[in-house]
């Protein structure tokens, strides 16, 4: 199993005491499969994604990526897992401002010890062929979002975690990016866990995990 989540609990301290946000979440995700994470605002989607990404640790329960329990890892091992096995597409694009589009793509492949392969072909599929030598600040928000998607895919992670990855794109471009992500998942055998508020996009994925008040509904 690529990703196993079992009985995960997470609370945050607030002025009124601990506020439970995730209350016993369990699910599995196989390689080559795509899973939509849906639920109303505040239901715990981003919190769950952060835990799976190893950016935070659960209070109870277990999260295994390829059989490795991320809560038991040292910070250094967790960082290495994030670098090599897990690809994050979050709302902050975190592009490197001093690198052009093509260099941003290539750099991330090398960071993950991957041969970047056909970067120009990928840029083409991202609709960025005419912007290869631009710097992030010279791109629109949607173009930056596509670089962020490409940057993650070029590293060929085992697990792709995405938070509204097409949120800044028009419907046609968003659908094209969804198609690209699904193709890459199918080609590389990676798993995709994607937060979305869109029923339409959720319907394009293999399965859905719907959260309601911190539980699987
Ligand atoms: N660091 C934190 N400290 C305290 N409370 C937090 C923290 N992070 C999240 N929360 C609370 O946890 C709950 C779930 O937040 P989360 O961001 O996971 O929801 P979400 O489903 O992703 O929402 P949205 O769709 O609006 O992004 C919210 O009530 C939020 O206020």
From TrEMBL:
Entry GO CC: plasma membrane
Record keywords: ATP-binding, Nucleotide-binding, Transport
Organism: Jannaschia donghaensis
Any one Gene Ontology molecular-function term assigned to this protein's record: transmembrane transporter activity
Domain ABC transporter: 3-217
InterPro entries in the record: AAA+_ATPase, ABC_transporter-like_ATP-bd, ABC_transporter-like_CS, ABC_transpr_LolD-like, MacB-like_ATP-bd, P-loop_NTPase
Protein's UniProt name: Putative ABC transporter ATP-binding protein/MT1014
Domain of life of the native organism: Bacteria
Membrane-traversing stretches: none
Pfam families in the record: ABC_tran
């Amino acid at each position: 199993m690529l990703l196993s989540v079992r009985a995960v609990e997470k609370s945050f301290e607030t002025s009124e005491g601990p506020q439970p946000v995730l209350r016993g979440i369990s699910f599995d995700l196989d390689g080559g499969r795509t899973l939509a994470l849906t639920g109303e605002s505040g239901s715990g989607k981003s919190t769950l994604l952060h835990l799976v990404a190893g950016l935070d640790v659960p209070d109870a329960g277990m999260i295994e990526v390829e059989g490795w329990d991320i809560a038991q890892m040292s910070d250094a091992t967790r960082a290495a897992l994030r670098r090599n096995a897990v690809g994050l597409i979050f709302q902050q694009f975190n592009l490197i401002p001093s690198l052009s589009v093509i260099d941003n793509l290539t750099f991330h492949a090398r960071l993950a010890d991957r041969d970047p392969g056909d970067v120009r072909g990928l840029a083409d599929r991202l609709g960025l062929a005419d912007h290869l030598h631009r710097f992030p600040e010279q791109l629109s928000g949607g173009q930056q979002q596509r670089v962020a998607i490409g940057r993650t895919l070029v590293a060929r992670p085992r697990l792709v975690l995405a938070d509204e990855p097409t949120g800044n794109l028009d419907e046609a471009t968003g659908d094209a990016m969804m198609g690209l992500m699904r193709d890459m998942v199918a080609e590389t055998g990676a798993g995709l866990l994607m937060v979305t508020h869109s029923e339409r996009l959720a319907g394009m994925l293999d399965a859905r995990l719907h959260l309601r008040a911190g539980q699987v509904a």
